[in-house]
Design brief:
Elements (H helix, E strand, L loop, with lengths): L1 H21 L4 H8 L3 E10 L5 E12 L5 E8 L4 H17 L5 E8 L7 H15 L8 E5 L5 H15 L20 H20 L5 E5 L3 H12 L3 E7 L2 E4 L6 H11 L9 E3 L1 H5 L5 E4 L18 E3 L10 H7 L3 E3 L1 H4 L2 H14 L6 H25 L4 H15 L1
Parallel strand pairs: 3-4, 3-5, 6-7, 6-10, 10-11, 11-12
Antiparallel strand pairs: 1-2, 2-4, 7-8, 8-9
Helix pairs in contact: 1-2, 1-3, 1-14, 3-14, 4-5, 6-7, 6-12, 6-13, 12-13, 13-14
Length: 407
């Protein structure tokens, strides 16, 4: 796993270097963007139910804050590492800049398998980590959010512990909270909804009436992307989870498929369709392919078999660097992850604003503002791709770096 993390960091840094050279940045300017501002490593001691004190290791990488406070998730996973949080915080800096958000990038995590903890131990871990990073975060300094294996409830515990530590209220320090504790309406669907907004903007620019969609990954992001696209009149022909997928060229109703997944544990038990593997799903004859699960699923080995005309990258880094030229050679256009899955962090920004100004926006307001924000970001990036005669991924990096360097 460490190799993948080193690889991710290397890829992000190489892309910054390549893009920086295109913008005629000096090696010093490029190096300034690549280096994180600081890495915080903390010990996270907790009392286990058997009375033993167990110590975990936690990190927070604060990559760059020239555009505003650091912003980024906290993950609880056994493969969390220093390299991983650096890589992810680097990508958060670029994502916030590409989406015109007044934030920099950060990422945090604890090396732990949360499945091995009960509810009380999980709460103790959340509070201990929040206390350990408290001197380094704050609503105008660094604003954490949920990530892998963390959620609204964990953010609530962390916020409570943080407020006890600093001895005052500061609801804007953590985002992704439950609505009743200051979270934003529309946050749960935001990443999926943002992806559909980017897809529709792209199709308008291409002047194409593409209809059929295959979604790999049926968690929160994949489900809401599929459901919102379905409501907009697109035909969802394939859906998959970690156990496999289901394909029906006549179309699937994502809500019905989700019911079966919740009842039986997988979409493969949905009766009205043909069972397919995750690998086969990527190569189906569809207009639009949406990888919404894991990184590196489209590689130099399977890129030539991809039949979709457009790819919307809802997972982080679903396409390897070597695969891009192959896809481009086939005329396949890809909306890059830092733009396509930017809806989540955009609505986190809206939550931060609401908390700071003690406001509560309606879901309609949130969705409308999300549409405006992502449409502007898409237009800028599309414009850059035309101007620099490059793909949308490099254009997104150019858009981000221009803003960071200008400051």
């Amino acid at each position: 796993m460490i190799n993948t993390q080193n690889e991710m960091l290397k890829t992000a840094q190489e892309l910054i270097e390549k893009t920086g050279q295109k913008l005629n940045l000096t090696p010093e300017e490029i190096d300034f963007i690549i280096q994180p501002d600081r890495i915080i490593e903390v010990k996270v001691p907790i009392k286990m139910d058997n009375g033993i004190i167990k110590t975990f290791v936690g990190f927070r990488s604060q990559h760059n804050n020239v555009l505003g406070p650091y912003k980024g998730g906290i993950r609880f996973h056994q493969n969390v590492s220093r390299e991983e949080v650096i890589a992810l915080s680097t990508l958060m800096t670029l994502k916030c800049a590409a989406n015109n958000l007044p934030f920099g990038g950060s990422k945090g995590g604890v090396i732990v398998n949360p499945k091995e903890l009960n509810e009380t131990e999980l709460e103790n871990l959340s509070r201990s980590y929040a206390k350990a990073i408290a001197p380094f975060i704050g609503e105008d300094v660094d604003v954490p959010a949920p990530d892998v294996n963390t959620d609204g409830k964990i953010m609530m515990w962390m916020l409570d512990e943080y407020e006890k530590t600093i001895d005052k209220k500061s609801p804007a320090t953590f985002t992704g909270k439950p609505v009743e504790f200051g979270g934003s309406l529309g946050r749960t669907e935001a990443t999926g909804r943002g992806g559909v907004i980017v897809m529709e903007n792209l199709l308008r620019k291409l002047n194409k009436n593409y209809q059929t969609i295959a979604v790999q990954g049926f968690g929160n992001v994949g489900y809401y992307f599929a459901q919102i696209a379905y409501e907009e009149g697109y035909k969802i022909v394939a859906l998959s989870d970690s156990k496999g997928g289901i394909y029906n060229e006549k179309g699937l109703n994502p809500e019905e498929v989700m019911k079966i997944k919740e009842e039986t544990g997988s979409v493969i038990n949905y009766k009205d369709g043909k069972v397919t593997s995750n690998e086969e799903l990527l190569e189906l004859p569809v207009d639009i392919l949406v990888p919404a699960a894991l990184e590196n699923v489209i590689t130099k080995d399977n890129a030539s078999q991809i039949q979709a005309k457009v790819i919307i990258e809802m997972a982080n880094g679903p396409i390897t660097e070597e695969a891009y030229p192959i896809l481009e050679g086939k005329g396949i256009i890809s909306a890059p992850d830092i733009l396509a899955n930017g809806g989540g962090v955009t609505v986190s920004y809206f939550e931060w604003l609401q908390n700071k100004h003690n406001e509560h926006w309606t879901e309609e307001e949130v969705n409308q503002k999300l549409e405006e924000q992502q449409t502007i970001a898409f237009s800028e990036i599309y414009q850059i791709s035309q101007e620099f005669k490059t793909d949308l991924k490099e254009a997104a990096f150019i858009s981000a770096l221009k803003k960071i360097v200008k400051k």
